[in-house]
Amino acid sequence: MTEENIIEHERERRAADRERRRAEIIVNSTADGIITIDQRGIVQSYNRAAEKIFGYTAEEVVGSNVMLLMPSPYREEHDGYLERYHRTGKAHILGGERETEGRRKNGTTFPVAIRVEKFDDLDGEQGYISMVQDITERKQAEERLEHSVASLEAANQELEALSYALAHDLKNPLLIVTNFSHQLHEALGDSLDEQQKDDLQRIRDAGRHMVYVIDDVRDLADANQLEINPAEVDLSVMGRDIIDDLSVLVPNRNVRFEAEPGIKALGDKTLLRLLLTNLLQNAWKYTGPSEDAWIELGVSENEGDVPIYHVRDNGIGFDDANREMIFQAFERLHTRTEFAGSGLGLATVERVVRRHGGRVWGEGVPGEGAVFRFTLGSDVTP
User: Fold this and answer.
1) What is the DSSP track for 282-314?
2) Tens digit of pLDDT for each residue in 172-231?
3) What is the Cα–Cα distance from 246 to 19, expressed in whole angstroms?
């Protein structure tokens, strides 16, 4: 070998050493455990993060079977996986991240996320490299979240059951109060002074309002609890029925109702009637001051493949700045003396729409009217 060849060989050796040291620095600075093994499962390298994760030093692991880092039953199955892969070429552990368990030096097990890839070393020998993450904290956080969600769901169910029970138990006593106050007014008649008549009227008004609130609370509970049984529903027919019922209750009003024929929707018939009743009752109520009141039920442009339904009216409208607030329970834009109501109608609408996988939004112009649009999603599930 000439002097020039010796110098060149030394230069290449030093360059290779630098690259190896650089690679070691990179491997040892990563937060993931990096472990390489040969075809027999013998550990060839083991970085500092792996030492921290498993508790073994590199000297204790390199040269040993990687099963040392596995709890049962994975350690007993490992050599079988390797043998099967070498024989068939099929491996479910290569590529992609999967979650399993690791075993520390002190014998405790813990959850890990692992990714295994194969590689060929400088001598052409095939080996495997594993990237390992200790996901104990992540799993604990997931468990805490699941526990919190379960606790919240249980609390919500208890609260809804309580509200439903209270609504049921309170309605009859309230009806008794309002009916007896009416009977007192009729029986005593002219013997009552103006203050007494006003007091009895206040009792009746408050009792009737509480009955409305109780009915709305039960509707909201139904919107949350009723099982969804999807079916094709004709909203045009349903809307006409609801308006006819309102016309019977308030015969002195003349409201023009327009509905496109054959508006179909997929959803639970009971819940969709609840949704449409609240939207049409709102439109009926807030068109009260209009001399030529009209309400429209229609279906407009598609949002993707999902129809957008709407209820439009020429009532008092609302400021668009309040468009998000109006769907919150008990939020009202007007006093009870201006317009009766509990503030639960649009909250019930939002719950029904959400359970059908859709969304609802409103647009208003003060003094000109409002439109409420909703979708029901492409997949309706309980």
Assistant:
1) HHHHHTTT-TT-EEEEEEEEEETTEEEEEEEE-
2) 676 777 777 777 777 777 777 888 877 777 777 676 666 666 666 666 666 666 778 888
3) 83
CA distance 32 to 16: 25
For the beta sheet containing 360-365, the strands, ordered from the edge strand earlier in sequence to the opposite edge, are: 256-259, 294-303, 306-313, 369-374, 360-365
* 302, 308 contact by CB (below 8 A): yes
Using CA atoms, how far residue 59 sits from 37, 102, 215, 338, in Å, is 15, 19, 74, 82
Element (H, E) at 44: strand 43-46
Distances in Å between the alpha carbon of 18 and those of 21, 22, 118, 221? 5, 6, 24, 70
Cβ pair 213, 174 in contact under 8 A? no
Q: Chain centroid to CA 203: how far?
A: 42
Question: What is the largest distance, in Å, between two alpha-carbon atoms of the chain?
Answer: 133
Beta-carbon contacts of 74 under 8 Å, excluding residues fewer than 6 positions away, are: 67, 100, 101
Residue 43 phi/psi, 5-degree rounding, is -70, 130
| Rounded CA separation 283/312 (Å) | 7
For the ranges 44-58, 66-80, 100-114, the lowest mean pLDDT is seen at 66-80
Q: How far does CA 59 lie from the centroid of its chain?
A: 49
Does the predicted TM-score (pTM) go above 0.85? Answer: no
- Return the SS3 of 252: coil
> Secondary structure of the chain: what % helix, strand, coil (to 5)?
50, 20, 25
Q: Count Cα neighbours of 234 within 13 Å in the Cβ-side half-sphere.
A: 9
The neighbouring-strand residues paired with 373 are 310, 361
Whether 306 contacts 375, CB under 8 Å: yes
Residue 42 carries which DSSP code?
B
Q: Is 112 helix (H, G, I), strand (E, B) or coil?
A: strand
- Other C-beta atoms within 10 Å of 132: how many? 22
Cα torsion at 237, 243, 245, 248 (round to 10°)? -140
